[in-house]
Amino acid sequence: MNRILLAEDEEVLRMLIVDIFEDEDFTIDVAADGGEAMEFLKNNKYDLVILDYMMPVYTGLEIVEKIRCAETNEHTKILMLSAKSQEYEQKKIFETGADYFMAKPFSPMKLLALVEDILDGNN
Predict the structure, then answer these.
(1) What is the pLDDT of residue 62?
(2) Sequence-separated contacts (24+) of 98-101 with Cβ below 8 Å
(3) Overall average pLDDT of the 57-85 stretch
(4) DSSP state of 101
(5) Is residue 75's pLDDT more than 70?
(6) Which of 1, 11, 15, 57 has CA 20 to 30 A from 34's CA?
(7) A biological process (GO) annotation for this entry (predicted)?
(8) Domains, the chain, ranges and CATH?
């Protein structure tokens, strides 16, 4: 079974995503900020990490850099969520090492479809 880490500081959005993913029987760990996300990453391996760009403690970009520096996480797929959807922001996200980007606001069902494609190797 695929294991996912979600790091999102907006509580309502975090709860919505978790509900949808748990309904589909995904194993998902949840962090409310970048510090919690780093603790999960120190102790677990993930197939996919979904990060909010702007979070307290560590930003999504800082976490991506740390994931990409750790040899144990080099194959982890990373999806960045952000309201910062300008082209130069997306370029920075990909240059830092994220594999996928989804602009906020987004359809939770589109997020689920993208995650399923990523984990199935279709994207």
Answers:
(1) 95
(2) 98/51, 98/60, 98/64
(3) 88
(4) E
(5) yes
(6) 1
(7) phosphorelay signal transduction system
(8) 3-110 (3.40.50.2300)
